[in-house]
Amino acid sequence: MRALVPAAAPLVPSSIADRLRDAAVHTDWVPDLGQNIGSRTWWRGAATCVALIGAAWMTRPGMPPVLGYAPPAVTGVALEETRTQGIAPLGLGATTGRRMAASGLVRHLTETPERPQIDLTVTLGGGDTLSNALGRAGVGMNEAARVATLVSGAVALDQLKPGTILSLTMGRRPSRLQPRPIEKLTFRAGFDLNLAVNRAGDALLLDRQPISIDRAPLHVRGLVGDGLYRSMRAAGVPARVVESYIKAVAARMPIGEVGAADTFDLVADQARAATGEVEVGQLQYAGLVDAAGKRRLQLVRWGDKDGEGGSFMDPAGQVERRGFMGMPVAGRVTSTFGYRMHPLLGFMRMHKGIDIGAPYGSPIYAAIDGVVQFAGRSGGYGNFVKLAHAGGYASGYGHMSRIAVSSGTRVQRGQVIGYVGSTGMSTGPHLHWEVWKNGVPVNPRAISLSSVQTVSGNTLRGLKAKLARLLSAPAR
């Protein structure tokens, strides 16, 4: 049998040259000179640096320097002209901008000539009049009065909105002691009208320029999702229209009963100008469709005035008036009336109202007509508003971020009295709503003060015709 031979050992450099080569390979010749200053490694790196510098200096090219062209020095008159026209710091003696000496061809003017025309704009301020605004722009009193008279024939002067921009072109004046005459005046007199005043000789003529308006109503439909307010705003509905929709729906059913799978449906007045501006008017239709596609609610505005003439009716012609809205804020009930474990104090305690969770800053509405008894800070309630109502009722609204009314103010049902917050003893943004009957706390959800009125005849037929017309508008 063959004997086992042990594995060969690693090769070891046998000669001095091999040992030197191995040492050179494993030596750090360029260490960081910022570390271990004064050590053996540091001195080795310093020596390497000096050697490299010396090698670079010894191998430098022997080329002679290339001399640049030096312009001759400027003196005398040429120096003054150069300094006058040159750009240099004032600290170095520059005289940039100084006029050169006039020659014999220069003729001195007795006065500075005026521009033949000037263009300017003036903005109509709050409580301002057209004549005063033109006067501030330098128009003479008599001519400003003539322009106001011309404009009043096309639009009432008190209907001109603050912020209206007047574009003026002023002509040449006979002398410096007289105001410039108006050559042209243009401005937006109304949503559907531009006006221009032009000069023709000594006369001023008014030119009406109507703007085409598309008055197709705004019809928006979408899922309720996380909340009515947020979803409708995301769909492009103006906040004022959203508030009107919520108030109309809350008068018929609690907002908390609106499900995430429901579909809101609304129609509002809209005017779209040919120039691109859009104005959205008041809400005309408020509808709600459940997840199965069945209509839960249909409300149509009937009349343009507040009160009975401006109420929302259902297709049967019924007008419902409730003293209390379903809830004073758009949200969901997070804590009901009765005994509960207090979230902060940690023991059972009577909860004298209901908590309604809502996004921070959501508007809070008065539940019924009343008078503000208190508006301010009130201990654990934080920012608190208390309203006194007829029939011995009172209601309170706590944890507001901001109060919108003051004590002694009379408020109407649906009027904004504050905004949702988390002041006082609160764990998050919500509204604490309390109701008292003759000073005794009662469940707000158990209160129902409502009355139903029914119309018939021509009013009912007109209501149904309006409903059909509104629903025929294409929805987006």
Automatic annotation (TrEMBL):
Keywords: Signal. The lineage of its organism: Bacteria, Pseudomonadati, Pseudomonadota, Alphaproteobacteria, Sphingomonadales. Residues 349-444 form the M23ase beta-sheet core domain. This is Peptidase family M23. It comes from the Bacteria. One of its GO terms (molecular function) is metalloendopeptidase activity. The keyword Signal applies. Transmembrane segments: none annotated. Coiled coil: none annotated.
